[in-house]
Amino acid sequence: MKKVVLLGSTGSIGQSTIQVAQLLPRHIKIVGLGVRQGWEKMLKQAELLGVKHVAVWDEKQAELCKQSAPSHIKVYSGSTGMEELAQLEEADIVLCAIVGIAGLKPLLSAIKAGKEIALATKEVIVAAGEIIRRECKKRNVRIIPVDSEHNAIFQCLGGRTLDEGTSENVHRLILTASGGPFACKRNVNFNKVTLKEVLQHPTWRMGKKITIDSATLMNKGLEIIEARWLFGIPIERIDVVIHPESIVHSFVEYVDGTMIALLSVPDMRFAIQYALSHPLRLPSNLPKLDLTQVSALHFMEVNAKRFPCLNLAREAGMKGGTAPAVLNAANEVAVQKFMKGEIKFSGIWKIVESVLSRHISSSGDNIEEILNADTWARQEAEKIRC
User: Fold this and answer.
1) Same structural domain for residues 185 and 299?
2) What are the CA-CA distances from residue 88 to residues 7, 27, 132 (Å)?
3) Is residue 44 part of a domain?
4) Could you report how far apart the first and last alpha carbons of the chain are, in Å?
5) Distances 29 to 4, 38, 237, 332, 349 between C-alpha atoms, Å
6) pTM for the model
7) Omega into 279 within 30° of 0, i.e. cis?
8) Residue 281 in domain
9) Less Cβ crowding at N or C end of the chain, within 10 Å?
10) Are residues 76 and 225 in the same domain?
């Protein structure tokens, strides 16, 4: 039985995690729930699952939650409350699915408490990979990735991450990208596409932010940086291919020229289940892949001119220091501006490129530097009109 603290319980990953726990009640028990906002939905989840510990990041909402919560449910409030929940004594593993840099301090708190980590928030390891890697080594904590691509690599490497011998025989990692709604369309005018068009992802059902990142391929850029920290593979040996069907989730190419890939139907519950049940493989009622019904699998090179976010991320990752944190923060602001109708779709990468060009990177070897870089990038991105 794995006892789980779930941070970000009301988002798409959080809801899928709850479904997995309900499918495997003898093996997975959720003992803590945390959200940034949306306490009403979280409280219903807590009552449904019998959870006695919850946290709400927004302190005003936390107070409302305390007023409404049954007496047997303890409500933690604010960022410190989320960090307390991440260190919950009875928990074996903390699944971090809080969107953005907000997940960083709770994640570090869980690591410092020696908890196993299931990581679904790529932004935190993108922004602070060196710090997270250092803390994990210090406390012998393992991070099991929940992103479908990194979870696939984790499985293809035999359940290894960080410096557990993954790089010696590996030539390169290949992340697959659906390419979002535009990869296979010709003559798309990115100055005119609408939010509705961008959110029409052909294979995955995700939150708005990650769906937009999928359409710009920024999500793949962030995943390249994430893979660098998770698996100890240099960025130059991490590639991306467009795979519209989203059946193959990633490849590992070994030095002898052979490849290992992981295939499944595009459903995040597979990755979540393995992350929480590892090293066991448990039977479940998740949809099975029928290869006789798959007419073809396609793989294409990424058109870097069409998807400039990918190279922006690669360059920031190779530069290191605070550059990845700036990349991530500028992108978050740009995506929000697009969702509000303040900029064109193409304005997303224009803002990111502009902010990165103004940034003087520092080492980023402590939390203060990372958070200061994040704040600076957000302020700069807000100023840009395009």
Assistant:
1) yes
2) 12, 19, 19
3) yes
4) 52
5) 6, 22, 38, 32, 41
6) 0.93
7) yes
8) no
9) N
10) no
Domain containing residue 21 = 2-141
Task: Say which residue the tokens 């390169």 belong to.
Answer: 172
Q: What is the pLDDT along the chain (386 residues), one digit of tens a residue?
A: 999 999 999 999 999 999 999 999 999 999 999 999 899 999 999 999 999 999 999 999 999 999 999 999 999 999 999 999 999 999 999 999 998 888 999 999 999 999 999 999 999 999 999 999 999 999 999 999 999 999 999 999 988 775 555 567 899 999 999 888 887 777 888 888 989 988 887 777 777 888 999 999 999 999 999 999 999 899 999 999 999 999 999 999 999 999 999 999 999 999 999 999 999 999 989 999 999 999 899 999 999 888 999 999 999 999 999 999 999 999 999 999 999 999 999 999 999 999 999 999 888 889 999 999 999 999 999 999 87
Which stretches of 156-254 are assigned E, i.e. beta strand?
Answer: 170-177, 238-242, 248-254
How far is the CA of 359 from the CAs of 244, 315, 329, in angstroms? 35, 13, 12
Q: Does residue 280 fall inside a structural domain?
A: no
Residue 375 has φ and ψ, to the nearest 5°, of -65, -45
- What's the chain's length in residues? 386
